[in-house]
Amino acid sequence: MRLIIVSAALLFACRYCDAAYVYSLRGDVDIKKSGSTEWTRIDADQNKTPLKQGDEMRTSRASTVEIFMDDGSKVKLAPLSAFRMSAEDKETVSLGLYFGRVRSWVKKFSKKFEVRTPSAVCAVRGTDFMVSADAEGNSRVEVYEGSVLTGDSRGNSSLVREGQFSEIPSGGKMKDPDSNPNEPADMNSSLGDARQIARAEIYGEISKEDVLARAQEEMQSAEYQSRKVAIDAFGNRVRMEEYTIRPAADQFKYVVLNTRGDRFDFGKILFTFDTDLPADLSQATQNMISSPGSAAPQWQLIAMNSVMSNTTDKVTEDASGGSMAYNGSLTDPRYNLVFGNYSFYAAGPAEANDNGGLGKLLWAKTNYNVPLNTESSISYLGGSAPALESSNPADFHSISKNTYSDGTWIAAEDFVLFNDGSILSPGDFSSGLSAGNSLDAITDKLNFQRVYTSSLFGGRKIDLIYSAKLLKEIGLLRF
Question: Most exposed residue of 57, 144, 269, 372, measured as fewest CB within 10 angstroms of its CB?
């Protein structure tokens, strides 16, 4: 009887609501209103916070939020999850789940209700179901009451009934519904572990506001930090900020931010190892690409995820299945890093959601041997190897351009230069050292600059400059 009274009260209250609204929350829950560029924290006593089309919400660790709709339906967002209210009107509710989990209790005879993930679309009327999306863009649907019409990105669909589940791989065909042996998921716990969340953030947050907000939070506990102003290869002053943090015990992330007058570019790389990292990070990084000797290194890199972006366009690299392979040499025995899978993507706004948010796949390679780049299976956009154009205007200035069979092209221009913008030359080390400088002092003045242009970018470029000094301090650069 008490449940009936409470439910009746909620339904009565919703008669006076003209939108979805926050009913209750626990922990840290942020909202970004449609048209705004800033995330704001919702106070625990801010119940009835309205949600409208275009609003976004995210939860932190040990945090949840419940949202009520004006027709009496309810959704609950689990910890470490994020979604967008894609549509909310008299006819339709549409939630875009970026990552994490959301459970929905949808009233019968209510408005059209759907949950979309990078790989799935789930449409219902009158049911209780849960949808999850992991960092790789894979989705899972579990139905506890009623049924859910579920479709994948290839146009396949199936009805998932009460007591069933279905999995939808990123970019692949959904699996046939099967009996679900699990009880309804605990929405107070997060999906997966810190590894998955860190990877999702690498590819999912590219707006300037999101990147700077996270940087402000992370730099307070950063292990290494560097700030300086340098001149790039084109004579522009660049404010450079770099730092590293450890999202999990077996991970570290390197971030570089560039501000030039009217533009902002950034890069992020996430490294995941097979075991917890040591206090001195360089002990793991110094041998993660190639390790001399006949004994395998203690720490082995198993995944690498990176993004470079101007906040509109992006280039992403996704590597997994890493291990160290012994070369068997008697004269130079060593272990070399090999990734089971390595993929390269690029995206303008039109390709931003392709392949689970990674972008347009340009090439992919299996058993990618990092230091030796030995021959292995490789696939290209369009099926054939791209036409390559390359040049070296100077010893430390190179340009390469790949044009694929469908006309898509991408070009990379690389520089090694000093803080004053002058390009490094072969004689700089000898002349610098003869003046009494150490090798460290010379390399600490060096920066690397990469500029990406592409047919996908609409005339824009991604232009990132980063320092040799910080890379050297964390063991990624050795002279």
Answer: 372
